[in-house]
Description:
Elements: H1 3-16, H2 18-36, H3 44-48, H4 71-75, H5 82-88, H6 98-102, H7 108-122, H8 125-129, H9 131-134, H10 174-189, H11 194-208, H12 217-247, H13 255-269, H14 276-286, H15 292-316, H16 325-343, H17 348-359, H18 365-384, H19 394-407, H20 411-422, E1 427-428, E2 430-431, E3 435-436, E4 439-441, E5 447-450, H21 453-457, E6 464-467, E7 476-482, E8 487-490, E9 505-508, H22 515-522, H23 525-542, H24 545-564, H25 577-591, E10 598-599, E11 609-611, E12 618-621, H26 624-629, E13 635-638, E14 647-654, E15 659-662, E16 677-682, H27 691-706, H28 724-733, H29 738-765
Helix pairs in contact: 1-10, 2-7, 2-25, 10-15, 11-15, 11-27, 12-13, 12-14, 12-25, 13-24, 15-23, 17-18, 18-29, 19-29, 20-28, 22-27, 23-27
Amino acid sequence: MSIFADAYSRYLTYNFNYIVRSKMFRKYFRTSIVFMTDPKFMTKTFIDQISSFPKYPYFFHLIKETNSIDLIKIYNSSMDNTQELLESMVGTSQLSKKELYDTIPILSDDFLEELCFQFSFISDTTTLYNYDLVLRSFVSEYQYRNFFSDLYNDLFYSTDQVAGDTAGLENKAFNYEYILYTCLYSIISSSHNIYAKTLMYLTYINLSGVIADRVDKDSMLTGFQTFITSYQSNISIDLADIIGKSIYDYQKISSVMMQNLQTSINNKLVDSATGLYAVFFQLMNAVESLSPMELISSNVVNQLNAFIAVDSVSKIFDDPTIVDQVQMSAETIFEENTFTSYIGKISEAELKNYLFLCFLYKFWPVKFLNVMQLTLKEYVETYIKSINDDTRLKEDYTNVLKSFCNNCIDFTGLKTFLDSNLIPTSTLITYPPGTAALFTFTPGSATVHCTNTASLAAINIHDYIYASGDDRAYAGHVVSKNVGLLTLTLDNEYIGSVSTADVQAYKYSFGATTYLYNVGLNYNIAEYGCLMYYDFVLNIFFESTYYNTFIEELTEAIFINLRDTGHIEYTFDWYRYHDVIDIYFKTYMRWKLLDVSTRYVLSNFSGARAKFTNNNVYVYCANVDTYNILLNGDYIFAENDSIDDASQVLAHIDPVNYILQLSSPYTGSTTINGTFTNVYGFDSSSVPLFNNVTNNFANKLFPKILSNSTVNTDYDINMVFPSETVLNSRILSFASSSAFINGMHRFTENLQLSTLTREIIYSMLTDFIPDAI
C-alpha cells in the first residue's frame, strides 16, 4: 500500500463527504458560542492574547484524554532537572518556539476552547473550504485550522458502495489518481451545460417567477431580516451576559443592570437606520459581485463536477480494462520507496533538541502530548522534508503525466465508462407490443419525420434521439411534436450522418433515476455550495466598513449605557470590548448558517437547566421556570451535545418534580455526574440564516434542472463526452500546461510533507500511548 495514496483517499473523504463536513462546521461554530457564554472563557487575559493566534497548525489532532497514556514513561523520558534541560538548549534555534508553547493551556478543556476560537473566529472562507490548503497540514504556521479532523478519516468509497466499504484507492498510485481526477474534472466540466441552464432558469425565476421562489439579493435580504427578527433577543441576552461578566470579572450582576444592557444592545441591533440589517442591506446593494444567482450556481456546479470526477476515479481504478494495473504498480513502488527514504532520515542527533523542548512540559501530560505534535512538525520541516525539498522537479511531473496517459489508460474503455455511468442509458425506441419505431433523420435539418403515429407517440418532449448507426454524441433534443405532420422538431440541426428513410432510433432522457440527479440530491452538494457562498458573503460583510461601523457604534452604545447608569467610571477603556463583540457576531452568524438551535434563557437572564440521560425519555428540569419555558413540541438537547441529538418534548408529566417526557429516548450523552446543564433547542418554525434561498435553490430549482422536469425545454440539460481520440488528446494536453504541472507539483509535495509529518507524529505518540489514539 502506498502511504501517500492512503492519505489521498482520506483527503478525498474529508473533502467530498459534504454532509459530515457541514455537521463538523456546525458543531464547532456552536461549541465556540457555548464557550463564549461560559463566564470562564472571554476573560481580559484571553482578550489580550488574541494577537498570538493562530497558535496551531492547519491540521491539529487534539489529544484530550490521558487514560491510556503511560505517564511514568513520559516522566522518565528526559532528565529530572528541568532547569538543566533548559540550560542544555540555550542558544539552540528550537527555543524560539518556547514563548508560544508557554501560552498553550494545560487542561484539555481550555485547550479545546482555544482551538474552537481559532477555528470559528480566525478562519476565513479560503481557509475553511480551499481544497489545496487542506493538504498543507503542517506546512507553515499560517495554515492553521481543522484541529478536529486529520488525514485519518475513513477511506473514500464510491456512490455504489456503502459506508465502511473502500474504493481501494489506498492500494494504487497516488500520483496517477490525482492526475486522472484533475483531468476528469476538466473534461466533465466542459461536457455538460448544467451551469448555463441553471443560470438561465434562475434568471427567468428571478424576473418572472413567484417572489417566494427567487434566488436574488432581495431573497438574501429577506432571509437576513428574518434572522434578526428571530434571534435578536438571544443575541442581546448573550452579549449582555458576555460584556457584563467581562467588565466585572464574572461577579454576580444585578438583573436590573442586565435588563438595561440587554435593552441597549437590542435597540441598536434593530435600529432601522444603523442596525445590523441596515448595514447588511447597504453592503448587498453596494457590491454587485455578491449576486447569489451566479455565485451559488457556480459553487454548486463546480462541487457537482468535482464529486462526479472523484467518484469516477474511484471506480475506474478498480477496472483493469481502463487503467493498466501492472504499469501502475511501478509508480506505486516509487511512492513506497519515497516514503521509506524520508523516514530513514530520522536520527537521534537531530531529533533530540526538539524532544527536549517538548519534555519541558512533561509534568502536564495533555500539554506535553499536544506540544509534541508542534515540535515534531518543526523537526519534519527542517530535517526530514522541508517545504523546499522537492521529491521531483516540475519537469519530472510532466514525464509522470505522459507516462500515465501513454501507458496506463485505455481510452476506448474510458469513453465507454463515462457514457454508460454518467449519461442516461440509451434505449431502442419502440411502441407496443415491442415494435421498433421508425424515423427519417435529415442531417442539417432540425426536423425528424416519424413513419407512423405510434412512432410519434413513442417520443416525449425533452428526449434526446439519434438514428441507429450514428453515435449518441449526435443526439438531437426534441423540443416539440406535430401530430398532423408526424414530425419532431429538434432544438438544433441534426449533426449525424444517417439519412436513410424509416430507420430505427435510440433515445435517452434525464430524470429522477439518473446518476446526475441522484448525486446532486443525495450528497448535499447544492446545500454545501450555498453554504460556501454564504460564508463568502459574511466574510465580505465582516471586512466592510459598514460592519465595523456597526460594531463600533454598538460598543459605544453599551459603554454610554453603563457609564450613564453609574456602573462604570467615565475613564473606562470601552474600546477593548470591540473585540469581544466582534468575536461573538462573527461566530454566531456563521453558526446560524447551519444551526437553528438557541440557548433557553429564563426571565432573570439565567440559563434554563436540566438533566439529560442517554437512552431515557425523561428530562429533569432544575426549576419551575425551566419546566414552563420548555414547551410541548420543542426539540431540546444538552449543552455539550449537538442538534443531531435533539428530542421532542412530548408532555409535562410532573409539575412537582419538574419532569418532562420526550417523544423518543434521548440519543445524546448523559449529563455529567447527574448535574444540571444548559438546555439548547428549537421549534418547528426555527430556520437557519438564508434558509429560504437554500431551499429555493437546493430543493425547488436545482432538481428541476437535473431531471429535465422544467416545463420549458429551453432549460433541459445534456451531457456529451468527447470521442476516444479527443479524450486522449485532452488529457495529454495537461502535460504541456504549465499551470497544471505547477498545481500538480505543489499538491503532491504538500501531500507528501503532510503525510510524513502525520506518520512521524503518530509513530512517536504511540510510544507513550500504547493503545490506538
